[in-house]
UniProtKB/TrEMBL annotation:
Organism: Minutocellus polymorphus
Biased composition (Polar residues): 40-49
Highest taxon, organism lineage: Eukaryota
UniProt GO MF annotations: catalytic activity
Name assigned to this protein: CMP/dCMP-type deaminase domain-containing protein
């Protein structure tokens, strides 16, 4: 459902609280919201989200969007920039992750890059130290310690956040709050789930009834490096990047298998969301 209204969002939700008296369909809620805001048909469009398949009936596919005209443009990267990000994953992040998995941590890592693609900080998951230290959050924490507070906002906005795996709901929110507007990740949620960790998708569904965050919104745009490699023009650069991406995927699969085999014997692993 899409609502393009100039009314104040807070006012809208306060008025919509009366709708909680009984269950309503998404279309009924949208029509009521239009009546409350007084939006004209020119300002507001309402479409009913198709019912999900029977085997997915409990998953909410629709969301309500208000004032979504400031969506960031799709991310782009040259073959050289893609190669640079793959190199950072392979040479700056992965070695730390290999050590981290030996300590009983998960396989997720991240790096913060400057506007010129220099690697400012690379980190890996460290949940055995703190449950909040997913790879992305640990990276932000380490970066914040070395970056003066007065420079963090501007450097984040001009920089790039690079993640080995698509960030979970906690991590994507943390990246947003830090100020990054460009987010690249190597492996999507589907790969993470196939590696035995489906919590990224599950937590979003359980908390908010959606299967993913919006990949492009007014705060940031995100892009999957695997998909960007696949879309490159045919040639040596594409072949080399494909080989490197496949090599990284293979290594992350190995590390994930090691983590799962050893996690139950690791006394430092809380296994809350193992």
């Amino acid at each position: 459902i899409e609502l393009n209204s100039q009314q104040d969002l807070t006012f809208l939700w306060r008025k919509m609280s009366e709708l909680t008296a009984k269950p309503r369909t998404a279309l009924e809620i949208a029509e009521k919201a239009i009546a409350i805001t007084g939006a004209s048909s020119d300002e507001t469009s309402v479409t009913e989200t198709p019912s999900p398949p029977a085997d997915d009936a409990n998953r909410t596919q629709g969301v309500i969007l208000v004032g979504n005209k400031q969506t960031k443009a799709p991310l782009q990267a040259t073959p050289a920039e893609i190669k640079r990000m793959l190199d950072i994953i392979e040479h700056d992040i992965l070695p730390q992750t290999e050590s981290g998995v030996k300590e009983g941590n998960k396989v997720f890592g991240a790096a913060i890059l400057g506007h010129d693609l220099t690697c400012d900080v690379a980190s890996t998951n460290c949940e055995t130290e703190c449950p909040l230290f997913h790879g992305e959050v640990k990276c932000i924490f380490d970066w914040s310690k070395k970056t003066p507070a007065s420079e963090r906002g501007s450097r984040a906005q001009s920089g790039i956040f690079l993640s080995t795996h698509e960030p979970c709901c906690m991590c994507i929110s943390s990246i947003l709050w830090t100020g990054f507007q460009r987010i690249f990740y190597l492996l999507p949620y589907e790969t993470t789930a196939s590696q035995g960790i489906p919590h990224d998708i599950n937590t979003m569904h359980e908390l908010w009834g959606v299967n993913s965050y919006r990949k492009r919104n007014k705060y940031f745009a995100s892009a999957c490096i695997q998909e960007m490699v696949a879309s490159l023009d045919e040639g040596e650069e594409k072949r080399n990047s494909q080989k490197q991406a496949e090599r990284l995927l293979s290594r992350y699969n190995e590390l994930s298998s090691k983590y799962h085999k050893e996690k139950f014997d690791n006394k430092r692993n809380s296994l809350v969301l193992g």
